[in-house]
Design goal:
There is one protein chain. The protein contains 16 helices and 20 strands. With about 500 residues, it is of the alpha/beta class. The strands form four sheets. It has a six-stranded antiparallel β-barrel. A five-stranded parallel β-sheet has the order 3-2-4-5-6, with helices on both faces. A hairpin with a 5-residue loop joins strand 16 and strand 17. The chain is elongated and about 85 Å long. The N and C termini lie close together (about 10 Å).
Length: about 500
């Protein structure tokens, strides 16, 4: 296990084309501050140096604009006074990440105010003009354009002494590997920023007896920021009651286009699930929710039991639209699913189902809501007369992850109450799956399934987690590095 915080390449999955819920704002774009600089004493000594460095800074600004982010460019600074002015501009902009471009040597006094005053994490980049100098022809001025690495140790030492986390990326202007690393930090900053402003719905009550699922709500804003909106099932009931036949019929038509319907699906149960789905959309819009965790038992077929049993379909559609919904009151898992979503990968509500020692795989998934973007097959609706371990009946969702890289992402809680990220990577592989209304994937972790299961359980992750397509560890390392969260990586062996 490790707690590394160095980002790299990532290969997230892609969610399906599911219509966005009415009235929802587009996903929040990260705001990235940019400041470039060099030592002003050089400009009169080497007249051609500053124009070259400004061209490099313009190229960096252009490349950063290619990421899905809003770039606030504070310009080029040449001394401590200009650094302080840039610091004030970036502080006022409320950035999610500050990128300091070291074009050549510059003193720490030029960037320490930026790092201290912005209130945002800082990434320093050292991108020289090309892969290497032309040693036979370069003079001192031309060399200085390649000297961005020179101040990096100075910055690291100064940042340590003033209490600012240090992180950097070194490369050259057209170095795609360096730009992928920079992009990883920008995406992670976007996730951190989105979590700080997110609203998480928590509706119903704890599944009886699940100690691990119980969550201190104060720790959500303490660890991630954001807000937890405590909801009643009656908040859903009144909205479902307002859904008419025309809206229900339209939702049924959408469902029939999205899902394969098994012969076991009852027409009345489908209509009820469609009506609840429409009501869920209203609930999410009315409360401005970015995620939802829920559970309710109910009794003898009364309306609250029917609502809880009817949520699987609508919660799956919400999840596919980018509003993760988890059953069993699993707030920490809906948070993990949202992290996957913001990293660009579909994360689905997951737990252990069985170990297959013959094939060397761990079978995992869950009954209830799933992420329709897992992509292994067209999602299927199956009618169930009983939900195991839960009350009620109706339709349930089956799907599986596409074959290839997958990531597990969970949010654990320690004895002293702190949240931490827990993650692992494996491969979804083909093979037989149960047909019982559960989403299931077969994951190969490259080692004995029993040993891996013991290691994952010992991480303190809890009962549930998110399973996402793609390799998310690089993005999670960056998120942990920016947010101060501990990241536990569970590895084979």
């Amino acid at each position: 296990m490790s707690t590394s915080a160095t980002p790299g390449d990532a290969t997230p999955g892609t969610a399906p084309a599911v219509p966005a819920a009415a009235g929802r704002a587009p996903a929040r774009r990260p705001r990235i501050g940019l400041v470039a600089g060099g030592l002003g004493a050089y400009w009169p000594q080497f007249p051609g140096l500053l124009p070259q460095l400004r061209r490099s800074a313009a190229r960096v600004a252009d490349r950063m604009g290619e990421f899905d982010a809003d770039v606030v460019d504070a310009g080029f600074v040449s001394d401590a006074q200009e650094g302080a002015q840039a610091a004030e501009k970036l502080r006022a902009a409320g950035c999610d990440l500050i990128v300091g471009f070291l074009t050549t040597y510059m003193t720490a006094t030029m960037l320490v105010p930026v790092a201290q005053r912005s209130g945002a994490p800082v990434l320093l980049i050292n991108l020289q003009p090309t892969e290497a100098m032309d040693h036979a022809t370069f003079d001192t001025g031309q060399w200085l354009a390649y000297c961005g690495a020179c101040p990096l140790p100075e910055m690291a030492n100064a940042f340590e002494r003033v209490g600012v986390e240090f992180r950097s990326v070194s490369g050259h202007l057209e170095d795609e590997r360096a730009w992928r690393r920079i992009g990883g930090w920008i995406r992670a900053a976007g996730v951190r920023g989105a979590l700080r402003s997110s609203r998480h719905g928590l509706m119903g009550h704890l599944y009886p007896g699940m100690y691990d699922v119980s969550t201190d709500l104060t720790m959500v804003p303490a660890s991630f920021g954001g807000h937890v909106e405590v909801l009643e099932f009656d908040d859903l009931r009144v909205r479902v009651e307002g859904v008419g036949q025309k809206e229900t019929a339209a939702r049924v038509a959408e469902i029939e286009e999205t899902f394969e319907l098994d012969a076991s699906v009852d027409e009345d149960d489908l209509a009820w699930a469609a009506r609840v789905s429409a009501g869920l959309d209203r609930l999410v819009d009315d409360f401005g929710l970015d995620s939802l965790a829920y559970f309710h038992r109910g009794l003898d077929g009364e309306v609250h039991e029917r609502l809880g049993a009817g949520m699987i379909l609508g919660a799956s559609l919400l999840t596919a639209r980018g509003v993760p919904a988890a059953g069993e009151y699993e707030l920490r898992t809906s948070l993990a699913m949202l992290i996957c979503e913001r990293l660009g990968a579909p994360g689905s509500f997951t737990e252990f189902q069985a170990l297959n020692f013959r094939d060397g795989v761990v079978e995992m998934g869950h009954d209830g809501p799933a992420h329709l973007g897992l992509g292994g097959r067209r999602p299927l609706l199956r009618g169930l007369g009983v939900y195991h371990g839960k009350r009620g009946w109706g339709v349930s969702v089956e799907c599986t992850a596409r074959h290839g890289p997958v990531s597990l992402v969970g949010v654990g809680q320690t004895r002293d109450g702190r949240y931490r990220l827990v993650a692992a990577e494996g491969r979804a592989v083909p093979g037989p799956l149960l047909k019982i209304g559960n989403t299931t994937s077969r994951v190969d972790f490259g080692c004995d399934p029993g040993e891996w299961t013991d290691a994952w359980s010992a991480s303190g992750v809890g009962h549930h987690w998110a399973l996402a397509t793609g390799e998310l560890l690089p993005g999670l390392r960056a998120l942990a590095g920016l947010s101060g969260l501990e990241l536990t990586e569970v590895r084979p062996g």
